[in-house]
Write a structure and sequence with these properties.
By secondary structure, the protein is mainly alpha-helical. The protein has a domain of 90 residues. Helix 8 runs antiparallel to helix 9. It is elongated, with a radius of gyration of 21 Å.
Length: 225
Amino acid sequence: MKSWIIAGILCGGLTLAAANFDELCSAGAQAAKEKDFVTAEAKYGEAVDAAETSQQKCRAVLGKFQAMRRLKKSQEAEKFALAAAEDEMIKPQEARNILNTVASGYLWTKGKQDFALNLLRQAQNCEAPKNGNVYYRTYYYMALVYLQQDQPQAAIETLENILQTKGIHPANLYSANMVIGKAYEKLGKTEKALEHYRTALENGKKVKYKFNLSEAEKAIGRLGK
């Protein structure tokens, strides 16, 4: 009898904790939507403490990180997020997500692109499903940096392996082929670029939600004349 009572208390406690976490994250998201980033940071900070799983903690960490950045606390936000990525509760996939997110803020920032690449190389060491968004973003972001640094061949090589992975979402195949197309354009290989823009468009049309295909259509129209 006592064991059933104890089990019921524990189950009730877990349910309450989950509800509390969801409520805190919802409050943080609502505050961010209303551009009240001070409240958003506070609520997500409470959610970090209330988190009971790796996924929950990652969600709260990223929410607080974004709120801090909107408050112009970029260095503090970066330090907070990178420390969280090493937290014992955080599993490799969520650590990779955090590293990707921090790196994404510096993809177009001269003087910080090498730092972004370093974070993304660390992310490569964090296991994640190969057909998932978290895995894909690591290489997509790396390729974007290489394009910015005028290394089109490196961008192509970074994404070519991704295209061979089964089960990748067509939206990711669209963006990967668009980047490769741009890289081939930089190399002066128009036919190869056009081939990838057309593949991008083909995959973009498979996306079931509303999806903007205009970039691929314009590139095909420009090169296909």
